[in-house]
Amino acid sequence: MRNSFSSAELQRLLHTNDHKGLTALCEAAHPASVAHAVAEFGLRDSVAVFDQLPLHVATDVFSHLHTAHQERIMEGLSRRRLTGLVSSMQPDDRAALLRSLPDRCRDAILPGLAQAERDDILRLMAYPSHSAGAVMTSEYVSLAPQMSAREAIDTFRLVAPDRETVYYAYVLDDDRKLVGVLSLRELILARPESLVHEIMKTRVLSVRAEQDREEAVEIIARYNLLALPVLDEQDRLVGIITHDDALDVLQNEHTEDMEKFMAIGGRHETGTYVNTPSWRHFVNRAPWVMGLAVLGLVSGSIIHSFEDSLMHLVILALYMPMLADTGGNTGSQSATVVIRAIALGEVKPGDGLRIMFKELKISLLLAAVLSVMAFGKVLLLSHGVVLPVGISLYSLGLAVAVALGVQVVTATLVGAMLPMIASRLRMDPAVVASPALTTVVDITGLLIYFTTARLLLGV
C-alpha cells in the first residue's frame, strides 16, 4: 500500500479517461487517502470517480467519507450504482448512512436492496441514535458449544470473508443466548479435538442494545477490547461493537462535549464544519448566545443598583474586570475537571459532597494566593490616587482582596456543583458549562464585589 497519495494524479487520470490507471492508483492507496482527495473534488468529478472504480474499491472509499460528502455524492449516482454501494457497505455503516438521509432518499434506496439487507438496516435503525445498538454491526462469528476446535477453525475460514472482524468468536446456545467467547488465538493454539465449551471463557463483558454508546466505548477502552458483544433483553446476541466504531463514537462524543461546552446546539458530528452552511452554524449558535445576552442584562441591573457606590468611589470600576475574569477562569477550571471525571466514570452523581469538599479546599488555596496578588496590585496601580475621606489605599486593597477571594471560592464551587446537578438530573453536564457558567459567575461576582465594598468601605 502506498504511503503517499497525489490527488492531482487522481484528477489527471480521471480527466484523461485512464480507467485502468485510476483503478490501479486507488487500489494501491489506502481508502482513507482516496476519500480525502475525492472530498476536495467538485460534485461532477467525485461522482465520476465512483462510477469508474470497481465496486469493492468504491465501497471502501465511500465508507471513509464523512456523511455530508456521502449525501452530496449520492445525489449524482445512478440508482443501480448507489444500491450496489449501500449493499456492499458494512451493516453499521449503511444503517448510519440511511439514518442520516431524508425520507425520500431512504425510500428510493431501500427497495433496491435484498430483503435480508433491508430487514437488517431497519432493525439497526430502530435503535436510538445514541444507543449501543445504533453503532453495532450484525456481522460476527458465532460457534456452537459442542463444536471441536477443528470444526470451529473451518467455520472461521467459511465466514471470515464476510465479517468485519474475526478476532473473537461468540459461543451461542440453541436460543442464540451468549454463553461464552473465544479468541482466534486461543482457538488456533487449542488441540484440534478440544471442544469449544472446554476452552471458551464464560465471563463475557457485554452491553445491552439500549445502553448509551458512551458506556460501551468506556468498557472497550477500559478492558482493551477489540470488540464488545451487544445483547437484547433476553441475553441473545444481536451484534458487536468493534474497536474502530468505538473510536468513531469517541471522536463524535468529544466533538459533542466540546460544542456543548461552548453552548453550540444542533447535530454534533466530527468533520462537518466546512460542509455545514453558514446559516446552520448561525442557527446552532444563536439561541444560547441570545439567551445569555438577555441574562447578562442582570449584570447591568446590579451595576445600576450600586451606581451611588461607583460615583462615590470611581476607582472600584478599575478592578471589576479582574474579578470577573478570575471568577470565570476558576469556575471554568473546576467545571472542566469535574465534567471530565464524570465522562470517565471517576465520579458518580452521589459523590457530590465529596467533590464539593475537595473543590472547597482547592478554592481556599487559590483564594489565598490570588487575594495577596490582588492586594499588591491595588497598592501598585492605585498608589498616589486621591481617595475619599475615610478610605485609605490599604482599606481599598483589603476590600478588593476579600471580594476576589470570596469570588474565587464561590466560582469554584459553582463550577463543580452545576455539572454534578446536571448529572443527577440525567442531563449532559457539558450543557451547564462555559459560557453559561461564565454568565452566572459574572452576576455573582458583581454582587460579591459591591456588597464587600459597601460593608468594608462604607460606600
UniProtKB/TrEMBL annotation:
SUPFAM superfamilies: CBS-domain pair, MgtE membrane domain-like, MgtE N-terminal domain-like. InterPro entries: CBS_dom, CBS_dom_sf, Mg_transptr_MgtE_intracell_dom, MgtE_N_sf, MgtE_transporter, SLC41_membr_dom, SLC41_membr_dom_sf. It is found in: Cell membrane; Membrane. GO terms for cellular component: plasma membrane. Keywords: CBS domain, Cell membrane, Magnesium, Membrane, Metal-binding, Transmembrane, Transmembrane helix, Transport. One of its GO terms (molecular function) is magnesium ion transmembrane transporter activity. SMART domains: CBS (SM00116), MgtE_N (SM00924). CDD domains: CBS_pair_Mg_transporter. Residues 136-199, 200-256 form the CBS domain. The keyword Lipoprotein does not apply. The chain crosses the membrane at residues 286-306, 364-387, 393-418, 430-450. Belongs to the SLC41A transporter family. PANTHER family: MAGNESIUM TRANSPORTER MGTE (PTHR43773). Homodimer. This is Magnesium transporter MgtE. The gene is mgtE.
